[in-house]
Structures are given as C-alpha cells and as structure tokens.
Amino acid sequence: MQALIKEFINYLDVERGLASNTLESYGRDLRQYSEFLAGDATGSLATASRATIVTYLLHLQKQGKATATIARRLAALKAFYQFLVREQYLDQDPTANLESPKLEKRLPSVLTVQEVEALLRQPDPSVSVGLRDRAMLELLYATGIRVSELVSLDIGDVNLELSFLRCMGKGAKERIVPMGSMAIRSVREYLQNGRSRLVRLPEETALFVNHHGRRMTRQGFWKIVKKYAKDANIRQDITPHTLRHSFATHLLENGADLRSVQEMLGHADISTTQIYTHLTRGRLKEVYAKAHPRA
Questions:
Q1: E strand segments, 56-201
Q2: pLDDT tens-place string over residues 155-173
Q3: Least confident of 50-64, 94-108, 155-169, 225-239
C-alpha cells in the first residue's frame, strides 16, 4: 500500500500540480488509514468495503477528531480510491456515494483597523530584521496573500514600479495582486537597507530571508507574528492568516465588490469568499444603529 500511496502522491504532484503542503497532508492522512487497516486482522486495501470506510470514520470520531479533520480524511480517501480504480489497481471504489460530514462554517478571526495599525508599528526599522518584519506584515495585509505565498516570493515576483506582485497559489495557479503605497515603501526600504545585511549567498533569490540568510519559513514567520501581537497588546490568539482575513473584511467593509476580493485572494469558488460577508453584515448593522435617526 505504501508504494501505491507514493505513486498517488507523485500523480498529484506531477499531473495536478498541488502544493507541497497539500501533498504532505494527503500522504499523512493515507498513511494513517494504512495503519488503521494494518490493525484490523481482516482489513486490507483490496478487501476494504464501504463498511470498512464507515468504521474508520467512526474510529476517527471516537478519537475526538474535529469534523473538518474527518471530512479532510474522507476527501483524501475518495481521491486515492478514484485513482486506484482509474489505474485499474482496484475494480470498485468503496468510498463511492459516501457523503462528507457537514461542516460548521466558523467565522474567521479578524483584527480591527486599529489593531492592524498597532501590529504594523511594532517592528523596529532601525535594524535589518525590523525592516524585513515590517515589510512582510505590510505586504501580507496589503495583498491578502497566503503565508505560504508570502514566504515563496522571489525578488523578481515584486514589481515596485508598477505596484503589483506575482504569486503562485493553490494548484500552481499564478495570479497578479496589486500593492498599496505603504507596502511598496516598506518593501523598498527593506531591499535597500535590510536584505543585503541578512543574505549570505549572492545567488539567493528569496525576497524574505531568516537570520541564516535562507528563505523564511512559514513557522518562522508565525513566531514573528505571535511576538509582535503580544507586543501590541492584541489579546486574541492570531496567526499570519488573521491578516489575510482582515484584508478581505476591511476591503468589503469599505465598498470593494466580492468578485474583486475573490480574485485577489485566489479563491476558486466565490462561496469561499462569501464567508466574509457575514462579518461585514454585523459591521453594517452597527453602523446603521449608530447613524440612522430611527434605528
């Protein structure tokens, strides 16, 4: 089974062009399913039935796994079995017609404009890492790109003169995102006065590098955001993704249309972007209550 999982992951990488994080997630989920089958005296990939899959899902539920986790595991199994049937390793797909558990749409956590401004004031621009951190935070909030997209940027992906950046999103889809003046200024200052002091190899292409002079990692930037959030006295538990959510929410609150926000975020389906309208509706009610004379 491990060989088939490896072949499937290779297919997702080469044929579908999925991101490395997605590939790792698929591989991890399928290996855990393989361990479940190995623990069942009668279970195997060839003999697994619909009942086997249901038993596995119930097993995950008993372990206390979140509904979103169970849904993701089932999605991985569905894709895997469809691949096995298509490649004629199996005759039947035991996951066929199995519905994913319904997910509760949780509203994303967002910062107020004042909290964002407080966060952006924290990096010290008198030192190289401060210039880098301010540029990363400004760019993340100005463009709404994913953290994985931010740390994957090369110098050539940012055009400061024309005010846009180019990034590769999920499914290796390229998109162009506009940049604001504050982000442009911060990135320019970092390139002029900070990056050269951090980079150790002249051939390094990464826009943002760590203290070793290598490309910044998602985990490294997560720690940076946590530190500055604490320094800014932001009490809610935020992640780098919180700035992406705040970007979308603040745009919609100020009149941006949903389609434009969808394109900038890189969402394939507008229904994914629509979750932010729930946040802005609450804000609109507050504005109405304060502004309308008969509210």
A1: 158-159, 164-168, 174-178
A2: 999 999 999 999 887 767 7
A3: 94-108
Residue 114: both structure tokens together:
């004042």
Give the β-pairing of 158-159 and 174-178: unpaired
Burial 166-186 (b: 16+ CB within 10 A, else e): ebbbbeeeeeebebeeebbeb
Does residue 278 have an active-site annotation?
no
pLDDT, residue 65, reads 86
| 11 vs 98 pLDDT, higher one | 11
The answer to whether residue 250 is catalytic is: no
Residues 236 and 137: their CA atoms lie apart, in Å, by: 17
Measured CA to CA, the distance from residue 252 to residue 255 in angstroms comes to 5
CA-CA-CA-CA dihedral for 284, 236, 246, 124, to nearest 10: 130
Strand, coil or helix: 54 = helix
Token pair of 94 as six digits: 């035991």
Q: Which of 132, 134, 146, 245 is catalytic?
A: 146
Answer yes or no: 230 catalytic.
Answer: no
Looking at 72, 78, 175, 241, which residue is catalytic? Answer: 241
As a whole number of angstroms, the distance between CA 108 and CA 23 comes to: 25
What domains can be seen in the chain, in order of their start residue?
2-86 (1.10.150.130), 113-290 (1.10.443.10)
Residue among 170, 175, 185, 283 flagged as catalytic: 170
Kindly name the residue from 132, 134, 244, 245 that is annotated as catalytic.
244
Is 244 catalytic? The answer is: yes
On average, the pLDDT of the chain sits at: 85
Residues β-bridged to residue 166: 176
In angstroms, the CA 249 to CA 238 distance is 15
Q: Is 276 a catalytic residue?
A: yes
102 is catalytic: no
